[in-house]
Amino acid sequence: MKKLDKRINLYYYFARTIASLLFYISFIVVLIIPQDFFDHPIIKMGLLLSLGFLVIILILFNFILPRYIYLLHGYELQEEYLMIKKGVLFRREDYIPIKRIQHIEGFQGPIQMLFKIKSLIIYTAGSTDMIIGIPSDDIEPLIHEIRSKLQVYLDSEEAKKDEF
User: Fold this and answer.
1) What is the pLDDT of residue 164?
2) CA-wise closest residue to 132 among 148, 161, 111
3) At 39, phi and psi to the nearest 5?
């Protein structure tokens, strides 16, 4: 099984922290606001407890779980299928038959550009799957290899039988 790029951890730290900044800032604002601003002291305490709980969950989600993504996520291209391993708390293995792939593309967002990683998006008739964190240099050879395996299938007698 091929592992993702080691920079995937930094990518997830960065992307998830940006997404969570709103909650971090709201927690700090509630801390700074004087008690007199609220009608009842219980309102501030309730906000602090709920936002504090959310901040703790987000810290675990943003800084602890991404460490395991590099260890647990990966992919493997075989003759008949593409296997994708995902998940930290809820592990999942997807087996995508090569003959069911309709379209594949490489994608790189602005944060991925900073870390020189890309995503591979695989489209089938029934689903779309994605591998996030492939090194930028490895994505084109992987796409070419998948396309060549798909072309071998399309040229085979099995593909001609499947048409009917």
Assistant:
1) 60
2) 111
3) -65, -45
Structure tokens at 82: 């593409």
| Assigned CATH for 74-162 | 2.30.29.30
Query: Exposed (0-12), middle (13-18) or buried (19+): which is 153, by Cβ within 10 Å?
Result: middle
**pTM beyond 0.85, yes or no:** no
Find tokens 């810290």 and name the residue. 59
In the numeric block, which tokens belong to residue 44? Answer: 């501030």
What does the domain layout of the chain look like in residue ranges?
2-68, 74-162
Average pLDDT, the chain: 89
